[in-house]
Structure formats: C-alpha cells, structure tokens
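Open question from group meeting: does this chain pack into something compact, or does most of it stay loose? Before anyone orders reagents, we agreed to write out a predicted structure and look at it together. Recording both the input and the output here so the notebook holds the full record.
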Amino acid sequence: MAGLQEVLHLLKIPAMKVFQKEIRLRPYARGYHLITPEILEGIPEISELRSGLLHIFIKHTSASLTVNENADPTVRSDFESHLNKLVPENAPYYAHTLEGPDDMPAHIKASLMGSSVQIPLSGGKPNLGTWQGIYLCEHRNHASGRKLVLTAFGT
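Structure tokens returned:
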C-alpha cells in the first residue's frame, strides 16, 4: 500500500508545509507600529510557499494586531485618538483598576482590534495590498516586549 506522500506525488498534489515560530518584539511605546519587517524576518521560511496563509497571533491581552494603511503615519495617530475617545481611561464604571488607568482600556481595545490576523501568501511572500502593513497596536503606556506566534502553511 502506498504512503500518503507517494499518493500525493502520483496525483500531482503538492505536500502541505507548515512552519511555526515564536518571536519576541522589542518594547514599543503606546500607539500603532508597523511590524511587517519584523514578521518577515521572524519567519523567512514563507519564501518556500507558492501559496498559503500566514497566521499571526499575539500572546497578550492588552495589545492587538491589525492590517491597515502603511504609508501615511497620521493613520497611526488617528487610530490612537479615536480609540482613546471610544474607550477612555479612568471611566468610573471600571472595576478592574489595580494595574493602572491604562490597563482596563487596553483589554477592551485589544478585544475590539483582535488578537490575530491572517495574510495570504503568494509566490513566497505576503500578498498584501500596495498600502497595507501589519500593525502592533500597543495599548499600554509601559509594556514589555510582546510575543507573537507566526504560523505559515501552504504548498
């Protein structure tokens, strides 16, 4: 009986490859930071994939990830301004306040923005739009470096 790899070869179906890395970002100030270069440096194996997906997950509850405009830096400050109005610090109804006035708003902002993003891979690189980049959304005033799990899979 033929093994799975042999059957895939006979059917001309390429075998799926999976790569996973955990990286630690340097500490960033509060705000929105393009981290696309750090992601690409962290998992160079994506160059082996003709097509697939890159999943990026942040292992923290007070920071988040998003894909957005990578050219005009005012987008980053507008994100910060808008979310600070939407989720203010020192709201009198917060019960979780022991870790400082930025902590509970950081948790809410992280839930609103999301803990992961998926990017299509084509021709060994992320298939982002011309003006798209991957952002770390740092919601704390004094955060340490953040850990990301990068998982790339495809053929």
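Observations to bring back to the group:
The chain has a mean pLDDT of 94.
The first strand starts at residue 17 and ends at 24.
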